[in-house]
Amino acid sequence: xxxxxxxxxxxxxxxxxxxxxxxxxxxxxxxxxxxxxxxxxxxxxxxxxxxxxxxxxxxxxxxxxxxxxxxxxxxxxxxxxxxxxxxxxxxxxxxxxxxxxxxxxxxxxxxxxxxxxxxxxxxxxxxxxxxxxxxxxxxxxxxxxxxxxx
Length: 150
Prior knowledge:
Blueprint: H1 59-62, E1 77-80, E2 92-93, H2 95-101, E3 111-114, E4 124-127, E5 129-130, H3 132-140, E6 144-147
Parallel strand pairs: 1-3, 2-4, 3-5, 4-6
C-alpha cells in the first residue's frame, strides 16, 4: 500500500486538546484554575524576580565583593607562531593581513605574537608586541620581527 502525503494522519490519541483552565466547574479546572488557593503565587501577574528569597537577604548580597576591574588593562589580539605557517615566505604578516584572512576577529589595543608552534619559513612579522620565545623562534627561522609603536 502506497502512502501519499495527503493521507498521513497522526495515530489515534496522539493529539490531545489543551486544558481549558478557568472555563468553569464543568471543565474540571474551574474556580482556582489549578493555582491552589490564596497566596502570592495564586495571584495574576505574580512573578518574583530571579534570586528573590521571600524577603530574606539574597545570596548575591550576603556574599562579599572581591577584586576590581582595571580600566587601563590592554586587550591584545593574540596569534600563535604555529598559525602563521599559512603565510608564504615572501608575504608580509601584518595586523591588517590577519584581519583580512579572518585569523583574528578584532585588533583591540594591538597584536601580540606568542611563541606556540614552530616557524619554518622566514617571515617578516609586524606586531605591537612579541613574547620572548616568539622572537627567538622568528630569528631562528631567519625572519624579522618589527614592533609597531602603539
